[in-house]
Please model this.
Amino acid sequence: LQFVESGGGSVQPGGSLRLSCVASEDTVDYTYIGWYRQAPGKEREGVSCIRKDDGETSYAAFVEGRFTASRGHAKNTAYLQMNTLKPEDTAVYYCAALHGGGLTPRQAMGMMLLYDHWGQGTQVTVSL
Model:
């Protein structure tokens, strides 16, 4: 079982992309979907987290107001709408699942090492 990310691509600054995150199996049970990214030569960092049951979200400061995470109508599907993209958003974007509960999405986003079912990632490139 893993998640599969898609929707990445190359855009100019100010452009938009919508990433999708779909579980390879419908039976997976999780509480949070986290979005993370890793730029060349940098550590993986948290971008956003959404709690599956109520859709509550949290965002890193550097994407707040530009990115929107959402749940899909289909089970085990999530999206990350990315607007007003900047060159510094260039990275491979990943989604993964966190089981359990009792955390705010912001707390859950900070627990990257506990996430499971990482996908292979999708490349986002923002350049002129």
Notes: The radius of gyration is 13 Å. Residues 105-109 form the longest helix (5 residues). The first strand starts at residue 3 and ends at 6. The chain has a mean pLDDT of 94.
